[in-house]
Amino acid sequence: MTDAQETAAETVLRTTGGGPPVDGVADGAVDGTPIPLLVPREGVPPVVADEHALAQVIAAFAEGTGPVAVDAERASGYRYGQRAYLVQLRREGAGTALIDPVGCPDLSALGETLADAEWILHAATQDLPCLREIGMVPTRLFDTELAGRLAGFPRVGLGAMVESVLGYALEKGHSAVDWSTRPLPDPWLRYAALDVELLVDLRDALEKELDRQGKLDWAHQEFHAIASAPPPPPRKDPWRRTSGMHKVRRRRQMAVVRELWTARDRIAQRRDVSPGKVLSDAAIVEAALALPPNVQALTALSGFGHRMGRRQLEQWQAAVDRAKALPDAELPQPGQPVTGPPPPRAWAEKDPAAAARLSAARAAVSALAEELNLPPENLITPDTVRRVCWEPPQEPTPEAVADALAAYGARAWQIEQVTPVLVAALSGAKA
User: Fold this and answer.
1) Is pTM, for the whole model, over 0.85?
2) How far from 9 is each of 36, 44, 186, 198, CA to CA, in Å?
3) Are strands 168-170 and 35-37 parallel, antiparallel or unpaired?
4) pLDDT at site 72
5) Cβ atoms of 425 and 364 closer than 8 Å
6) What does the alpha-carbon distance between residue 6 and residue 23 come to, in Å, rounded to a whole number?
7) Coil, strand or helix at 349
8) Three-state SS for 287?
9) pLDDT score, position 28
10) CA atoms of 365 and 405, how far apart (whole Å)
């Protein structure tokens, strides 16, 4: 073990007590240089992949105390969907656990054991869907990424936060690997264990900083909103999100995109691979624009080259032919039904008064966000600002604006902060 590893393994972790470090030096750093954190304090635990080992982990974490650090690794870009392929946990008194959801697909008993604990996650909305699939749903959480945003940190990735707040450098070289690989290589497991090694320390430091800035209640409201949010509904017409779709303008071409996307999705799901590994978005758009009459013409298109077998080419051509054979009444419409305001670029032409309101509101929100030292989109979502400006209250009183913000899901702290500047912006534009 090197000196750096010994230091990382044996040093008693200290936190700054919050905020960007004074003079750029965090507590863990030596002469301003972050200490590389290369091994977990208790070493890398064995991967839990059967019910007996899982029962032992559940018992250990039930005996643990305080919040529990939670992380999950997916195989985005390699496998179909966003399922978890590794779950990492750490809790005082229980240490770190690495759980294989392939071997232990139901973690609801663990989730129930931790139901009363605060869960610490980094960028919680990314991991909560895959954790929910395996039975792990928090009732309380602390999101260190969101906390960093509210506290005004310019860089809120886990590595950047650990370095600037705690003074330790995490290796981030394995974030995009194929976590469905079995067995998982030892360096990957070490990386995964380190991802939860300092989450509790980071949480404690950020809590102190948020309290110092008078923003801790804001953070608690945001965390509660995330923990209590229902699962999002299935996306309508997901094929419309094909990259390059803006090039496709004719309804017949849109039908080709829809047929190819649907065929690709079915194949990707059956083979459990990322859809992009079956057929690229660029190839789908290319075929839609060209409307190839036969397999030979399809083969000449980018994305349908020599590596693709005859059978594959025939199935893609069959999808194109199905779209070409559809009656006009069954072709997709050019755009999805618009439930909210139009794109802001169209406001000046459609409703100049609304455009003036939006310009004033955006400027006011940006100025307030800068004053409060947090990103404008965390102060209030841009979509909420657009909706209030497109259909403002008949009289922009504080009560009416506050009610409108609440109807769009704004939290109490956001309403308190934003209402005065929006009232001024809407009133000024109206005048």
Assistant:
1) yes
2) 10, 12, 17, 12
3) parallel
4) 98
5) yes
6) 27
7) helix
8) helix
9) 62
10) 14
